[in-house]
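Exercise 7.
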Amino acid sequence: MEEKLTDQERARRDKLARYKELGVDPYGKKFVRSDSIKSVREKAAGKDNEQLEANPIYVTLAGRIMALRKMGKASFMNIKDVTGNIQCYVGIDVVGEEAYTVFKLADLGDIVGVYGRVMLTRTGELTVRVEKYTHLTKSLRPLPEKFHGLTDVEERYRHRYVDLIMNDDSMKIALARPKVIRAIQNYCDSLGFVEVETSILSPILGGASARPFITHHNTLDKDFYLRIATEINLKKCIVGGMEKVYEIGRLFRNEGMDTKHNPEFTTIELYQAYGNLQDMREFAENLFREVALKVVGSTTIPYGEKTLDLGKPFGWKTMVEVVKEATGVDFDKKVSFEEAVELAKKHGVKLEKHFNTVGHIINAFFDQKCDDLLQEPTFVYRYPIEVSPLTKKCEDNPLFTDRFELFIGGCEYGNAYSELNDPIDQKERFEKQLEAKKLGDEEASEMDEDFLEALEYGMPPTGGIGIGIDRLVMLMTNQQSIREVILFPCMRDSGK
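Solution. The predicted structure, written as tokens, is:
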């Protein structure tokens, strides 16, 4: 089928032959730059034309043409690299007739190289007076005029490469993400933690409550899960004596997509031998402050319509306390399962068919009714044992576990435990999960015999935490959608 081209696309393709006639490769070759646009601006900062003429600054730059004003024998263009945008003056009397003929073939979006002297125009705009012009890459498609303002934001995500060209904010977010990850690594390393890598393919579903992606290994003729957590393998490292480990890696959960969820996402999981939940609380608070200082420059950061002060102590509330604040229902009082079901009906809390304990219902109240109360940074702790199969029981009440989740702006950012290291208790928890799976809980864990064997060798008391890096990047860049901070998010087909 013949490709349908617009007039602009056809005109650009027609120019390819003309480049070749002029002895110019339309797709260029290696080009050595002396500077970035940012460094040029820094070199020329505060200088007037007299100073720039007395001590000339010559630069070699490359970038994409973002503005073009052809005016006979003298023209202007703006080129953009990853560090910024700068104006260039191209005159036939300076570059010569041959180079100017090549320049006249230029279109918006083309990638070019320039060599020249830095000057100021009459209006005071910093400009490169081009003495040598080099065509590097022809853009066969015109740049969109209003890509940043598209009402269908999903088009930006589907064509992220165009988004990065046209939208400076998207580029800033893309560059901020590795800064967040480096800040996390540097902080963990400074505390003596060792970064490790573990397998993405897993024969057992475990480490979290989630629906998995399933793939098939042809040589072994066996199905594997894409990991939903790194927890189990990292705990095996603790058993092996590594003591302080972490992993930053991709996880995969076969679940819904919205502004806070993407089927593949990045987390850090960290484990500290001889620690507990309070160590993880201290780690999380300090980590968020450290990342804010390194990436934003302050522990006071804008987020949505509010300003968050990460320098203040984070809140510390039990799940039952938060449920009572939100609904008036007090689960600290003894409540039968039947009474809990009636309370759920009264408050419009949806129950699943595998919910067969009060703990399930407490957790459902929390999940469905409490987000609005958790705007300021708050640790919610003491989770029901039914939803925490890998966590130590609370010493004063075995129906709850020594676990917290960290919430900011009504969104969960981290999940931490005093890790369960009793293999007999752990096996009983797995058996409970198998019962829940039979009742229809697709997120329930499976029996992990290898992990139980590891625990039987002895795992020291351990604190562990997982933190969502995508959401942390959202927080540090003031974004409300996870798709803004993942370069190529999972998308529905266009038009569906």
